[in-house]
Structure formats: structure tokens, C-alpha cells
Here is the input.
Amino acid sequence: MPRMPTIDELIARAEFLAEEHKRLAADLKTYRRLQKQSGKAPELKYADGKLTDEGVRVLEAGFKAGRSPSDIARSLGITVPAVLYRKRTWEADQ
Here is the structure.
């Protein structure tokens, strides 16, 4: 029989989900801003999987917001190593 979570575990999980909601809302806000600027939904990746300029802007917005590489990768549909590579390049340019 599975163990019932403690109240502290439930609170921690609720806080985690609230933070995840904030991150997803920020992604949506960035996406809508880019959509409004271009007049259409931005393409974030090319057919070969490489990021478009808009995709790179969304990626860099994630870095600036302090999001984790796994969060960014998940929101863009790319791998964590790809995000880490882009992060090293971005940090070198800063």
C-alpha cells in the first residue's frame, strides 16, 4: 500500500506546482508577445529542429528569468544538452 504524503510534502508539491504555473505563464506571455509583434504565431524551430531567431529569443528570455535548463528544454521541445550549449554561448556573449 502506498505511503500517504505528509502535509509538508503536500505543501511543497503545491508550491512547486505554483512555480511551474508561473513559468508556463511566462512562456505563454513571451509567445503571445512575439506573435503580436509578427502578426502570426512565431515558428520557434525549423523543420530540421534548429531554433529560429524567435526560438533563440524565447530561450534567452528563459535564461534571463533564471529558469532551469530542463524547464527551457521542455517548453521549447529541445534537449537539455542543446539548452546548455546555448547557455554557454549566451554567457560568453554577456
